[in-house]
Design a protein that fits this description.
The structure is a single chain. Helices cover about 30% and strands about 20% of the residues. It is an alpha+beta fold. The protein is globular and about 45 Å long. Helix 4 packs antiparallel against helix 6 and helix 5 packs across helix 6. It has one domain.
């Protein structure tokens, strides 16, 4: 799966499409427990992650303070160090160091930025994944990929988007995860976007938070997560779990059953708790 992202301010949203209303058609998930593999996270003690951590001075960038402060500093570092270029697709075999070199030269797409931030978090011991967010149209190939990291401070997965240096908060300023954002959009609850969100360090997006929220709403329908979260990635042999809402039919996919695609294994489920375990 190799995707290209256009910045949301370059995308023509359908005038008659209300993306939140589409979410409202499929608001819930089931509690059915499926037999699927457990997520794996490469140890920060691995040679690859230790080398990456030292090469890019990750500890110095993270600095002092609590866990969330460090996670935000690292988000901002990725956003301002590596350029976004939606015209650049990802090769099938990749790692964060190769992406970092491209990101400083030609730029990389949202998936590349999310993989770099994911590797940054893994390298200092945080559980992290890059998540591909999709809409309800299985034939429409314009998803958005971002990073989620598990916060021990808040005891949940939180969304961090390195392309736009963006994260969401509730009215108390608590950072939100993907499912919380989806729930609040469906139920008309207020969510806040950090004021310094930007694209390629350009702050001209300051008055476009509503546009970004609409863009995110469009891709809050389905989610794809790698099962093994490692430094080296081979998209030709890529096992993942695909979360869909209750009642949605995704082609001929059978819930909980492994679908083999070459040497890749795909598991489609509608249980959010299993997906975010």
């Amino acid at each position: 799966m190799i995707y290209v992202l256009l910045p949301f301010n370059m995308i023509s949203f359908g005038q008659n499409i209300d993306y939140v209303n589409i979410l409202k058609l499929y608001p819930s998930y089931t509690t059915i427990k499926y037999s699927i593999p457990q997520y794996e996270y490469q140890s920060e003690k691995s040679i690859e992650l230790q080398t990456f951590r030292n090469k890019y001075y990750i500890d110095s960038i993270a600095g002092n303070g609590d866990e969330f402060d460090k996670q935000i500093r690292l988000l901002k570092w990725v956003n301002c160090t590596f350029k976004h270029n939606g015209n650049q697709s990802l090769p099938s075999k990749i790692n964060a160091d190769i992406l970092a070199i491209s990101g400083q030269k030609t730029g990389i797409n949202c998936g590349g930025l999310a993989i770099i931030l994911n590797t940054v978090y893994l390298s200092i011991g945080y559980q992290s994944r890059f998540i591909t967010c999709l809409n309800n149209d299985s034939t429409f190939n314009d998803p958005h990929t971002l990073t989620v990291v598990f916060s021990k401070k808040f005891n949940k997965w939180i969304l961090l988007d390195p392309t736009y240096c963006a994260y969401f908060m509730d009215k108390q300023g608590i950072p939100l995860g993907i499912i919380e954002i989806r729930y609040k959009l469906i139920n008309g609850m207020k969510i806040q976007l950090n004021k310094d969100f930007n694209l390629n360090s350009v702050s001209t997006l300051a008055n476009k938070s509503d546009d970004y929220i609409q863009y995110i709403a469009r891709n809050m329908f389905r989610f794809i997560s790698p099962i093994c979260n490692n430094y080296n990635i081979d998209f030709d042999c890529f096992d993942y779990i695909h979360l869909i809402p209750q009642g949605f039919k995704l082609g001929s996919a059978s819930l909980g059953q492994m679908l083999q695609d070459g040497c890749s294994s795909i598991y489609c489920i509608d249980n959010e708790n299993q997906f975010w375990k």
